[in-house]
Amino acid sequence: MRLGHTAKYAMQALAFLIRCHARDEWGQIAEIAAECKIPRKYLEQVLLDLKSAGLVESKKGQHGGYR
After folding, report:
1. Distance CA 1, CA 52 (A)
2. Torsion region of 61: left, alpha or beta (phi above 0 gives left; psi -120 to 50 gives alpha)
3. Are 38 and 46 a contacting pair, CB within 8 Å?
4. pLDDT, position 9
5. Cα angle at 59 between 57 and 65, to 5 degrees?
6. Residue 67: count of CB within 10 angstroms of its CB
7. What does pTM read for this prediction?
8. Cα 20 from Cα 52, distance rounded (Å)
C-alpha cells in the first residue's frame, strides 16, 4: 500500500507529538517541521486536520503548541 504525502506527514507529526507527550512537553510547529522535514505551511494544515479529528490538542501562547 502506498500512502500519500498528507498521510505520511500526519503519521510523522503524530510520532513526534507522542514523543513530546511522553516528556510532558508541547510540540511546536517549527520543531516538528524541522525534525520531520515537513514544509511548515503544509504541516499547519495537517495539524489543523488532526485537531479537527480530535487526535491532537493545541495550546496558544509562548509555551504552547500541539500534543
Report:
1. 26
2. left
3. yes
4. 94
5. 85
6. 15
7. 0.87
8. 20
How distant, in Å, are the alpha carbons of 10, 16, 30, 61 from that of 36?
10, 8, 10, 23
Please answer whether residues 59 and 65 qualify as being in contact, where contact means their C-beta atoms are separated by less than 8 angstroms: yes
In angstroms, the Cα distances linking 33 to 12, 13, 26 are 10, 8, 14
- Cα–Cα distance for residue pair 66/58, rounded to 1 Å: 4
For the beta carbon of residue 43, count every other beta carbon within 10 angstroms: 20
User: What 3-state DSSP class applies to 17?
Assistant: helix
Could you tell me the mean pLDDT of each successive run of 10 residues in the chain, 67 residues long? 87 96 93 95 95 94 89
How many angstroms separate the first and last alpha carbons of the chain? 28
